[in-house]
């Protein structure tokens, strides 16, 4: 499977143009993209990173990481996903970086999603849907999710009693047992719950192009 991820990550380099500032997502597929980007780094002006993990990898290659507040809109964002439906709506956040990923996707003109074939689904929801929440609102948000969806939110566990702590200092609830027939409506409804920071559904702002790793990669 990592071969498919590598092929998807390397194919995304085709979309990088000279002088661009490139938005960079998070995860093992993106790691291949970063490694390929390192080989052409002299052609770009820098990157904006969606996580501490990606920032470390970018800097290890000597690639400049810029503050989104100083770059203005980005031309290109490249990121992975946990699931992708035929309309290019995504579930993301398996790596707990969903909020910064959503911010950069929103700031970018073109969002290229890089996945291996196992991520393609007809209906989103087999992968538990991540929701980033303010820690004090965790139980409240969980109750509201049950009332809204009937599905089961599970607090993502981490190294200690605080559970997983995101780069923004928040907690993650993973919603199990959803079959998401209307991703735009569910994203909007979950975003209304006080204490929700962001939802790992990328439906209002879906991907523009999806690259599925393979020999050759498929693009849709
Ligand atoms: O959303 C993400 C991180 O928050 C990742 O893009 C998603 O989890 C896919 O990761 P991988 O490429 O390792 O399969």
3D architecture notes:
The chain has 220 residues and is an alpha/beta fold. The chain has 2 domains: 2-120 and 204-219, Rossmann fold (3-Layer(aba) Sandwich); 129-198, Alpha-Beta Plaits. It is 30% helix and 24% strand. Strands 2-1-3-6-12-13 form a 6-stranded mixed β-sheet. Strands 8-9-7-10 form a 4-stranded antiparallel β-sheet. α1 (2-11) crosses α2. Ribulose-5-phosphate is lined by residues 25-29, 79-82, 92-98, 101.
Percent helix, as a range, is: 25-40%
What ligands are attached or bound here?
A: ribulose-5-phosphate
The first-level CATH class of the largest domain is given as Alpha Beta
Counting helices, strands and paired strands, the structural category is alpha/beta
Shape: globular
Please, how many helices?
A: 7
- Strand/helix succession: HEHEHHEEEHEEHEEHEEEE
CATH architecture of the largest domain: 3-Layer(aba) Sandwich
The description of the largest β-sheet is: 6 strands, mixed
Task: Report the average pLDDT across residues.
Answer: 97
Low-confidence stretches: none
Oligomer: single chain
Distance between the termini: 20 Å
Indicate the CATH topology of the largest domain: Rossmann fold
Rg on CA atoms, Å? 17 Å
Number of domains: 2
Strand order of the largest sheet: 2-1-3-6-12-13
DSSP strand tally: 13
